[in-house]
Amino acid sequence: MKANQQSPPAALGFHMPAEWEPHEATWIGWPCNRADWPGKIVPIPWVYGEIVRKIAPGEIVRIIVNERTQRKAQLLLERVGVDPVRIEFFTFPFDRGWTRDSGPIFVRRNALPREVAIARFRFNAWAKYPDWEKDARTPLLAARKLRLRLLPARIGEKDFVLEGGSVEVNGKGTLLTTEECLLDPEVQVRNPGLGKSEIEQALKANLGVKNILWLGKGIAGDDTHGHIDDLCRFVNKCTVVLCQEADPCDVNYVPLQENRERLQGMKLEDGSRLEVIPLPMPAPLYFDGQRLPANYANFYIANAAVLAPTFNDPRDRVALGILAELFPDRPVVGIHAVDLVWGLGAIHCLTQQQPAL
């Protein structure tokens, strides 16, 4: 395993595959930080257990643990019926469990010799929180453990700061993101002093994309300041689902309408237009007076199932039905996320796919 200091991943033939392409494994970080779910940590490992139970039939689940949590995780997964052969534990020091953002972002080269590698982006806890130094080492530790190449993701002479939840790809060359997350010059600034053109160049060089589509703002309650995976997701190479708020008095109504208008004028890498499918929003969810980022777009596409968050809401059934029509090749499974979203994230935020070679 050697880091290449000269050429970015795209120049070496690597790109980020779409999430629905076959996985070798799914990565997830077992919950260990009680501050992520203050006052609600007790049910969270059981939600993780259900997530692992639904993913494991189709692929290996690689679980990041610390020495204190590994045995607890093993016992819980046994109790919920997960086949231990389908699980691998990786004892890494880590701060929090949001693996989508701090975990390894895998890229693949399809040309011979075919290869999967890790693009090492810099993680700084969403430019907001102080606990990130252990999480920032996770891609390096994963590359060493798996004996994969680690490809530094750079923007000029600097490390490129990026979280996995801020980008969404169709695997054919198009990437979706938001201006709020990557371009805001004042709030949670990931890459200070860099404008749109520099960010686009870095995304193309490090993720192997050609075409970048910019939405505006994310949803209320999202402490990442605009992650795309709470908002709009590819479901195939030419179709996205986009959250839509029906109540014109809700704070999400106008931003989501503006994003829909943007998408209607956008084109894919081949010049064709996107198909945009509306996905409802659940009723606003609050805890201790705080608006939570409850939404149905934070689903995860595993080999054997699509796992979608549910919120004890009448719209749960509508959202699951829409996703079921869009994924006819695998079942869509609802995962109760009312407790989970108190951590300000849901299923997609917790998981990271490792593409099959």
Features:
single chain, 357 residues, alpha/beta, L-arginine/glycine Amidinotransferase, Chain A, 4-stranded mixed β-sheet, 10 helices, 23% helix, 25% strand
The total count of helices amounts to: 10
How are the strands ordered across the major sheet?
Answer: 1-5-6-7
Whole-number average pLDDT? 96
Gross geometry = globular
Full CATH superfamily name: L-arginine/glycine Amidinotransferase, Chain A
Taking pLDDT < 50 over at least 5 consecutive residues as the criterion, the unreliable ranges are: none
Provide the helix percentage.
10-25%
* Overall number of domains: 1
> What's the total count of β strands?
21
Instruction: Look at the helices and sheets and give the structural class.
Output: alpha/beta
Tell me the Rg in angstroms. Answer: 19 Å
CATH structural architecture: 5-stranded Propeller
Q: Give the DSSP E fraction (strand runs of 2 or more residues).
A: 15-25%
What is the highest CATH level, the class? Alpha Beta
Distance between the termini: 17 Å
Largest sheet: 4 strands, mixed
CATH topology term: L-arginine/glycine Amidinotransferase, Chain A
Give an account of the 3D structure.
The protein has one domain: L-arginine/glycine Amidinotransferase, Chain A (5-stranded Propeller). The chain is built from ten helices and 21 strands. It has helices at 44-55, 70-79, 99-102, 125-128, 138-146, 179-182, 196-207, 253-264, 315-326, 347-350; strands at 14-15, 23-29, 60-65, 87-91, 105-109, 115-120, 150-152, 154-155, 158-159, 168-169, 174-178, 211-215, 232-236, 239-244, 275-280, 286-287, 290-291, 300-301, 306-310, 332-336, 351-355. The model has no long low-confidence stretch (mean pLDDT 96). The radius of gyration is 19 Å and the shape is globular. Helix 1 links the parallel strand 2 and strand 3 (60-65). Strands 1-5-6-7 form a four-stranded mixed beta sheet, covered by helices on one side. The protein has a four-stranded mixed beta sheet with strand order 4-3-2-21. By secondary structure, the protein is α/β, with parallel strands linked by helices. The two termini are 17 Å apart.
